[in-house]
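Repro:
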Amino acid sequence: RAQCRMGRRAISRRYSIKAFESIEAGRPIDTLYYYWDALRKGRGAAPQLSDFRPFEIFPDSILKHLSWIDTNDENPENYRLWNHHGGRMEQILGSLEGQYVGAYPNAMHRNASIREYQLCKVLKRPIYHQIDQKMFGACRIYRRMLMPLLDERGNVVRIAYGIRTSHSHSQFVTHLDPQT
């Protein structure tokens, strides 16, 4: 059972790619990140959306950790969730498939997510973070790797993300400094 240590608020910790490599080695989100990274072809820029085809490559055991946000609207509240794995939140809220981020019923989570999506979109680079939150009485602890995808003009039009959830802080114990 999840231990909510944050009370009524969410806590988000951002980690470096170096920390990600150590923390997630061998896990499905590690596989998804290295696939995304390989598509950059050493250019340093985010890969093209048209090149990102994980459903043609990976088995369900990997794909069940992949979701994405369409970010081609100027207003981040109009970003749309796809292949969203809601877990316990889905039992409470129903499916979020195709929903607008702005329609998310928890303002604190919605606003925090929008900030992360906007940062990923502006920087055009991956962002790895852990989120501890209590929402509607349910605890959620998860780590996400946000991976931007570009259109032919170089704009971020989708953010794919790999996700790993836990029901216990002990599964996410790490002695790494978030900034390492």
